[in-house]
Design brief:
Order of helices and strands: HHHHH
Largest sheet: none
Number of strands: 0
Number of domains: 1
Length: 104
């Protein structure tokens, strides 16, 4: 957890993250969050849902946008991405240790 805290500290301590694509995803989530209530969005944009790698990002960020601003959602989603990478490594390590060396 200390490693994760050190890794995520710059995410919450800076105003702008130097990750170009993450802002495009949050802008898409902002459009999805306000699509039903804004006629201009309905005129110029149509949601096209299909199974894509960033679909989970869209679903979680749309939910968070109803509670927080877009700047904070970027930071939370970046921290969640780091947490999933860290958690995946921990789970993989535990699975490798659980099997142990092959018995002879």
């Amino acid at each position: 957890m200390l490693t994760f805290t050190i890794a995520v500290f710059p995410v919450f301590s800076s105003d702008v993250l130097s990750m170009n694509d993450v802002y495009n995803h949050v802008a898409r989530a902002e459009v999805l969050a306000h699509y039903a209530s804004d006629p201009a969005l309905q005129t110029y944009w149509t949601p096209n849902w299909r199974l894509v790698p960033y679909l989970g990002y869209d679903l979680v960020s749309v939910g968070l946008l109803s509670l927080f601003g877009a700047g904070f959602v970027v930071k939370v989603m970046t921290a969640l991405s780091l947490l999933m990478l860290f958690g995946g490594g921990v789970l993989l390590s535990r699975a490798a240790r659980a099997d142990g060396p092959p018995a002879h």
